[in-house]
Automatic annotation (TrEMBL):
Family annotation (InterPro entries): Aminotrans_V_dom (IPR000192), Aminotrans_V_PyrdxlP_BS (IPR020578), Cys_dSase_SufS (IPR010970), Cysteine_dSase (IPR016454), PyrdxlP-dep_Trfase (IPR015424), PyrdxlP-dep_Trfase_major (IPR015421), PyrdxlP-dep_Trfase_small (IPR015422)
Keyword terms: Lyase, Pyridoxal phosphate, Transferase
Molecular-function GO term, any one: lyase activity
Signal as UniProt keyword: no
Protein name listed in UniProt: Cysteine desulfurase
Species in which this protein is naturally found: Algoriphagus halophilus
Top enzyme class: transferase
Residue ranges constituting the Aminotransferase class V domain according to the UniProt record: 25-394
PANTHER family: CYSTEINE DESULFURASE, CYSTEINE DESULFURASE 1, CHLOROPLASTIC
GO biological process per UniProt: cysteine metabolic process
Record's function text: Catalyzes the removal of elemental sulfur and selenium atoms from L-cysteine, L-cystine, L-selenocysteine, and L-selenocystine to produce L-alanine.
NCBIfam families the record matches: sufS
Similarity remark: Belongs to the class-V pyridoxal-phosphate-dependent aminotransferase family. Csd subfamily.
Cofactor list: pyridoxal 5'-phosphate
């Protein structure tokens, strides 16, 4: 059966508009994906019919909201194949999920002289929290180098591992280049020296099948807004025994069992890490995004997106002045590039004039850009609703722009 692209596009009202008099072509999916109508309807429906605070209410609306909220937790559990829904913690996003681990696991288990390993490919949100922690604790941050294609050097990673390594925190798929890291092998090697592993799944979770039990990662961070869900919402997955061993993140309502002025006891996981009123409406709507992905099927989505990336490479690589950035063998559907003689931002503005939305700049990966000797790139990132004809228009736009400086 061919991929039902027209049917899928119908589910995204935002795609059917013009910008600068041209049909919108949305290729900024690594920054955030658009939302299917079911997600938008759920947000509306929640505030029209169900709005109530959860877990404590004795009335019908509170009961309903609590049930829907907890249904999403179970949907996330199934989405990443966690053992139990208690291992799913709702956060504001990948950034907060990583900070939560740094603040709680890090503060308790990482001490002076201990080592944390990240990679050159990391987003700032998987660099800065560890720098802050290392500074506070006198721990050491080590960085896995990459080759020019944007792939980590596995042997160098192995050399960095030692009994001093307490945590390996790596991106599963790079937002700047699309590189998919060999995380199965990395997790195995890290566990062999007794280190825990956190995967930054901000980019991988929308493209790849994720099975946290099979991967055996200790933590996984993701953002709902990159998965066709609402902004301001993310997830931290953690193995039960590790989450239970960690102190709470923030103090407040919901995360406690009993409070007295002398002593407070904490709630069980996941509530121990969810202080205060959560992002209820967005959590409830997120389930509809996960249903959308499940109904199409991750392997089908991956095949479609791989096809788009291959087609983009076929059309763009021959263009004079086109410089691909990040040519890893294993990639998600991210096409990073430059045009010889042009600043990435100018290319972005010229594509925007053609209705094509891309991202330009360092993509919150300044150390990676420095390693590649670049100020930034133009990034076109493809999602389930993008089509081959949109890729053709990108190629046509890039060819015209490149001709300005590459006659
Ligand atoms: N890691 C990666 C690889 C990302 O692409 C992003 C978002 N650009 C983040 C972390 C941070 O995600 P958020 O802004 O949703 O917290």
């Amino acid at each position: 059966m061919s991929f039902p692209i027209d049917k899928i596009r119908q589910l995204f009202p935002i795609l059917h508009q013009e910008v600068h008099g041209k049909p919108l072509i949305y290729f900024d999916n690594a920054a955030t994906t658009q939302k299917p109508k079911a997600v938008i309807d759920s947000l509306n429906g929640y505030y029209l019919h169900d709005n109530a605070n959860i877990h404590r209410g004795a009335h019908a609306l509170a009961d309903r909201s609590t049930r829907y909220f907890e249904d999403t937790r179970v949907a996330v559990q199934h989405f990443i194949n966690a053992k139990e829904s208690a291992e799913i913690i709702f956060t504001k996003g990948t950034t907060e999920s990583i900070n939560l681990v740094a603040y709680t696991f890090g503060r308790k288990f990482i001490n002076q002289g201990d080592e944390i390993i990240i990679s050159t490919l990391e987003h700032h949100s998987n660099i800065v929290p560890w720098q802050l922690l290392c500074e506070e604790k006198g721990a050491i941050l080590k960085v896995i180098p990459i080759n020019d294609a944007g792939e980590i050097l596995f042997e160098e990673f192995e050399k960095l591992l030692s009994p001093k390594t307490k945590l390996v925190s790596v991106v599963h798929a790079s937002n700047a280049l699309g590189t998919i890291n060999p995380v199965e092998r990395m997790i195995e090697a890290a566990h062999a020296v007794g280190a825990k592993v956190l995967l930054d799944g901000a980019q991988s979770t929308s493209h790849l099948e994720i099975d946290v039990q099979k991967l055996d990662c200790d933590f996984l961070a993701l953002s709902a807004h990159k998965l066709y869900g609402p902004t301001g919402l993310g997830v931290l997955y953690g193995k039960r025994e590790i989450l239970e061993s960690m102190p709470p993140f923030q103090g407040g309502g919901e995360m406690i069992k009993e409070v007295s002025f002398e002593k407070t006891t904490f709630n069980d996981i996941p509530f121990k890490f969810e202080a205060g009123t959560p992002n209820i409406g967005d959590v409830i709507a997120f389930k509809y995004a996960l249903d959308f992905i499940r109904e199409i099927g991750k392997p089908q989505i991956k095949e479609h997106e791989d096809g788009l990336l291959a087609y983009a490479n076929e059309l763009l690589l021959p263009i004079k002045g086109f410089i691909p950035v990040g040519t890893a063998a294993e990639k998600v559907s991210v096409l990073s590039f430059n045009i010889h003689g042009m600043h990435p931002f100018d290319v972005g503005v010229m594509l925007d004039a053609r209705g094509i939305a891309v991202r330009t700049g360092h993509h919150c990966t300044q150390p990676l850009m420095k390693r590649l000797g670049l100020e930034g790139t133009v990034r076109a990132s493809f999602a389930v609703y993008n089509s081959k004809s949109e890729i053709e228009q990108l190629a046509e736009g890039v060819a015209r722009i490149a001709r300005i400086k590459n006659k």
